[in-house]
Design brief:
Layout (H helix, E strand, L loop, with lengths): L1 H8 L1 H4 L6 H10 L5 H11 L11 H14 L3 E5 L5 H9 L5 E6 L2 H14 L5 E5 L2 H6 L7 E6 L6 H9 L2 E10 L15 H14 L4 E6 L5 E6 L1
Parallel strand pairs: 1-2, 1-4, 2-3, 4-5
Antiparallel strand pairs: 5-7, 6-7
Helix pairs in contact: 1-4, 4-7, 5-6
């Protein structure tokens, strides 16, 4: 248990760059605890090295589950699945007859996801497609309502993913986008790498989009919750 707790409380893993380490630990302790499947997934993902930082924090996972339950989503989409922690959170919030479409390109990482989805009993709710996400999204009928979407993939395509999903978003649907603070680099005038620029452009795109309302939250590395007006 201590090993898992140490993994959960590392600020470098949680990317809560603006919070004191003690506050990060307090947030983790005050949130609903992880279960055995989640702990196993966190521990296995941690063995992947630096890329393990792509896994969302468990308080983000709790937040996703709550949002999905609140929307009573029947069809959800995830762009960027990695080892499956966020998909697990979303699937657990879905009704028994609902579906989650997961878009990713890595068979190795999603093999870890599949095993844990199976162990958690949510595998039947999830359809995983290994292909470029824009291709998968473009193949969805325009009549397919998306009730909930989570975007956490390559930053250069954030606007493209958003536009494809928004065109299919149901009246009360939500789009949740991760990494919108990008470890604070979005406000660092000296940070001009491609990913930082892409995040800034996405945030500006949403800010100027009269079709939606947005709340940017300081959870993890920053999440934006977006809804049609």
């Amino acid at each position: 248990m201590k090993k898992i707790r140490d993994l959960l409380s590392k600020k470098t893993d949680r990317r809560s760059f603006f919070l004191d380490e003690n506050l990060v630990e307090y947030i983790e302790e005050s949130s609903t605890a992880t279960d055995q499947v989640q702990r196993s997934l966190i521990e296995e993902t941690s063995t992947l090295g630096w890329v393990s930082r792509m896994q969302i924090s468990h308080d983000q996972g709790n937040f996703l589950t709550m949002l999905v339950k609140a929307t009573q989503a029947q069809f959800a989409v995830e762009v960027g699945t990695f080892t499956g922690y966020s998909a697990l959170a979303i699937a657990r919030g879905l009704p028994a007859d609902a579906k989650l479409l997961c878009c990713d390109i890595s068979e190795d990482w999603t093999d870890i996801a599949r095993r844990h989805w199976r162990e958690a009993g949510v595998e039947d709710k999830i359809d995983l497609v290994l292909a470029p996400a824009l291709e998968t999204l473009d193949e969805l009928p325009l009549t397919q309502n998306i009730d909930f979407a989570f975007i956490d993939a390559d930053k250069k395509n954030y606007i493209n993913y958003y536009e494809s999903i928004l065109s299919r978003l149901s009246e009360n649907g939500l789009i949740v986008v991760d990494n919108v603070l990008w470890s604070g680099r979005v406000v660092d005038a000296n940070a001009n790498d491609h990913d930082t620029i892409a995040i800034r452009e996405f945030n500006e795109h949403i800010r100027n989009d009269a079709r939606v309302s947005c709340s940017m939250l300081s959870i993890g590395d920053g999440v934006s919750v977006i809804q049609k007006i």
